[in-house]
Design goal:
The chain is built from eight helices and no strands. With about 180 residues, it is mainly α. The protein starts with a helix and ends with a helix.
């Protein structure tokens, strides 16, 4: 069955087609959820919520642009909506902090460790970091998406980078000590 036929069947609430669509895209969308979530279990919940939203809104997909891109946008927005509802941005300094340089040598810092420390960031820092660094959104776009001020986006990114830098430096120091 073609993707366009699968989409059409999902528009008719065909549960078999919905299952096929889930099988086809769940692993890619799960990686998006994992990036924005605090942990694996929360990522699973976010994925389920995203697919519910996708199936509820699939009639709105007009066939223009990438379907996978449309799915990804819905997934990111679903996850962000959860955090907006939790009011994770209430207590935030509005001043923009200095830029922190963050160098990552993938030979010294395993990707699993990097994902872990990103997931452990406080919500407001993790979301801004992922949107800006990993997905390429501007601070203006992030401010609109998260309903925060531009300065809040910039200061949250700087703080996220500072925390990650400290964790990476600690990891490298630990690795050096263990190799002695």
């Amino acid at each position: 069955m073609s993707l366009s036929q699968l989409i059409e069947n999902c528009r008719s609430n065909d549960t078999k087609a919905q299952g096929e669509l889930y099988k086809l895209f769940s692993s890619k969308l799960f990686s998006v959820c994992l990036k924005y979530s605090r942990n694996y279990a929360e990522a699973e919940d976010n994925l389920q919520d995203a697919f519910l939203t996708i199936f509820d809104n699939i009639k709105q997909y007009k066939g223009k642009g990438s379907f996978e891109g449309w799915l990804r946008r819905i997934t990111v927005n679903t996850v962000l909506q959860r955090y907006r509802n939790e009011k994770v941005f209430d207590i935030v300094s509005e001043h923009a902090a200095d830029e922190v340089e963050l160098e990552i040598d993938e030979h010294q810092v395993p990707i699993e460790y990097l994902l872990k420390i990103i997931q452990e960031l406080p919500d407001r820092y993790r979301l801004v970091f992922n949107l800006y660094v990993l997905d390429g959104y501007s601070h203006k776009e992030i401010a609109i998406m998260l309903d925060i001020n531009l300065g809040t986006s910039k200061s949250n990114l700087a703080r996220a980078r500072q925390i990650l830098k400290e964790n990476i430096e600690n990891h490298k120091a630990t690795q050096r000590l263990q190799s002695l």
